[in-house]
Write a structure and sequence with these properties.
Elements: H1 8-16, H2 20-37, H3 40-52
Length: 53
């Protein structure tokens, strides 16, 4: 149970303690999820934007 609310600074410091490997793994999973759930039109737009960069 949560007995008190976290302050913004505490929350940020907790998130900063996550290892870079875990952060990258989380980002990869999010990208895979977005790729599966988006419509073909949106995927094409993202692909074009990626090519421009």
């Amino acid at each position: 149970m949560i007995f008190r609310w976290e302050k913004r600074k505490e929350k940020l410091s907790r998130y900063m303690n996550i290892s870079p490997k875990r952060k990258l793994e989380w980002l990869r999973q999010m990208n895979e999820f977005i790729a599966k759930c988006t419509m073909k039109r949106d995927r094409a737009i993202r692909r074009k934007l990626r090519e421009i960069r």
